[in-house]
Amino acid sequence: MSFPRLSEVDIASLSTPISEQDVKQSIFSIGGIKAPGPDGFPAIFFHKSWNTCKNGLINLAYDCFLKGSVPSDINRTLISPIPKVSNPTNLTHFRPISLCNTTYKVISKILMQRLRLLLPTLVSPNQVSFVPGRQIQDNIVVAQEVLHKFKNVKGKVGYIAWKIDLTKAYDRLQWGFIKQVLEEIGIEGRLNNLIMSCISNVQYKSIKLPAEICNKLDNMNRDFLWGTTSRNKKIHLVKWDMVCLPKNLGGLGIKKSKMMNQALLAKAGWRLSQRDTGLWGSFLKGKYHKGGFMDVYDSLKNRNCSSTWRGVSYGAKLLLDRVTWRVGDGRVIRFWTDNWVPELGKLQRHVSSPLSDVQINEKVSDYLVANEWDLQKLCSVLPWYIVHKIFSIHICGSISTEDSVI
Fold first, then answer.
1. How far apart are CA 70 and CA 190, in angstroms?
2. Rounded Cα–Cα distance for residues 196 and 178 (Å)
3. Which pTM does this prediction carry?
4. Who's near 68: CB < 8 A, 6+ residues apart?
5. Which tens digits make up the pLDDT trace of 48-83?
6. Which of 80, 207, 296, 391 has the most beta carbons within 10 angstroms of its beta carbon?
7. 262 touches 313 (CB < 8 A)
C-alpha cells in the first residue's frame, strides 16, 4: 500500500517554529467553560489571566515542539461516558468523551491547524470526515446514485453492494502503524515524535472508588427511582438488592456502583494479562507486576503502590477464579495454585497433604522435559486420573511460546 507524500514545501510549513500568536490563537479558540481535564483549569482561566500566565504557556509550547514530546503530567485524561440514547442499558449506549487538560489542547490545536491545510492532499476523496470542505452528505448522494443504478439496470448483468461496518475502526489501529504512516507521507523526526507523544502517551485514571462514594452514588440512584427529594421523602418499596437483580430474575438490572467500578477496573487487569504494549502497561508491569498475572496481590504488600495499581488489583479479583491459563513454555503458570487444568481448577485442592514452600512456587515448566510432560514426576505427586487430564493438554508451540491467559 502506498500513501501520498507531502512536498518539501508542505513539510517545511509543518516544521515552522511556533510563534506567540500561534499559542494565543490556540488558547482563545477553546471555549472558555468547556469541561476541564484532571488539572481542573478551564480555558477561561487562561483567557482572563493571559497577561500573567502567557509566558509560562508559550514556553511550554516552545519546549514541546523543540523536544518533540508532551510532558506526561499534562497528557492525563478523564473519561466521561455520555448516553447516546434516552434509556441506556449497556456500555455500548454510551459515548466516551475525553476530558483533556487545557494545556494539552493548546499543543494539539497548533498541530491540528497546521495539518488541517494538508488533509485534502492526504485523505482520499471517498473519505469525508475530518476534511474541511467535505461533508457526510456527499457520500449519501453517491450511495443513493449507486443504488438507483442498481434498481434501474436491465439485462442479465447484475450488481452487488457490500455494507462494511467500520464503526470505531480508529480505536483499533496500532501505534506502530500510525507512526509508519506518518513517516510514509513525509512527517519524520521531532514532529513525528510530538504527534505520537500526543496520541499514544495518554494516561487514563483507574482508581478504586471509596466505599463511601459508591454508597452515595447508590443512594442517588435509589432516591431518583423512588422520587425522594430533600423536601419530600418517599418509602423505598423494594430492597435495593432486589432492584439490582437482572431483569430476567425480577429486578430492574440497575448496576451497583461498587460492582460496576470493580468490573471496569477488571478490564484494565485483563489488558495487562493480554500484555498490552502501551506505555501505561509497560510502566505498571515494570514497577509492580514482576511475577505472573495471578501475582498481582503480592505487590500490594508494598505500601507504596499507587492508587491506580490498587484499583487494577482490586478489579483483577473478578478474574482470578474465572480465567484459565493456556500452557506455553510453562515458566509463568504456577503448577499448584493457578487454574490451568480443565474442569479441575487449582491442583492444590486435589492433594491431601500440605504443600511445601518449594512446591507452592513450582511452575508448570518444572514438569516439562524437552517441551513434553514429565510422566514420572507427575505420577510421583498426583493421582493417575489427574495425570491423564494433564496429558490431554496440548502444549502450545515451541519452547519459546509464552503462557497466556484465556
1. 11
2. 8
3. 0.50
4. 189, 190, 191, 192, 193, 194, 197
5. 999 998 999 999 999 999 999 888 888 888 877 788
6. 296
7. no
Find where cell 509497560 sits: 282
Tell me the three state secondary structure of residue 165: coil
Which residues 6+ apart lie within 8 Å of 226 measured at CB? 234, 235, 236, 237
Residue 71, exposed/middle/buried by CB under 10 A (0-12, 13-18, 19+)? middle
Contacts 24+ apart (CB under 8 A), 39-48: 39/74, 39/76, 39/101, 39/102, 39/103, 41/101, 41/102, 41/103, 42/102, 43/102, 43/105, 45/102, 46/102
What is the DSSP secondary structure assignment for residue 100, as one 8-state letter? E
> Which residue in 345, 340, 346 sits closest to 324, CA to CA?
340
Query: Is the Cβ–Cβ distance between 190 and 14 less than 8 Å?
Result: no
Angstrom distance (rounded) from CA 34 to CA 109:
15
Rounded CA separation 327/306 (Å): 31
Q: How many residues does the chain have?
A: 406
Strand partners of residue 82 = 95
Q: Is residue 44 within 8 Å of 32, Cβ to Cβ?
A: yes
Closest CA to 62 of 197, 199, 194, 202: 194
The helix (H) or strand (E) run that includes residue 77 is strand 76-83
Residue 333 gets which letter from DSSP? S
Tally Cβ neighbours within 10 Å of residue 251. Answer: 16
Quick one: angle between helices 102-116 and 50-67, nearest 10?
60
| pLDDT tens track for 324-350 | 888 888 888 888 888 888 888 888 888
Instruction: Name every residue whose Cβ is closer than 8 Å to that of residue 357 and which is 6 or more positions away in sequence.
Output: none
Tell me the three state secondary structure of residue 373.
Answer: strand
Q: How far apart are CA 125 and CA 139, in angstroms?
A: 10
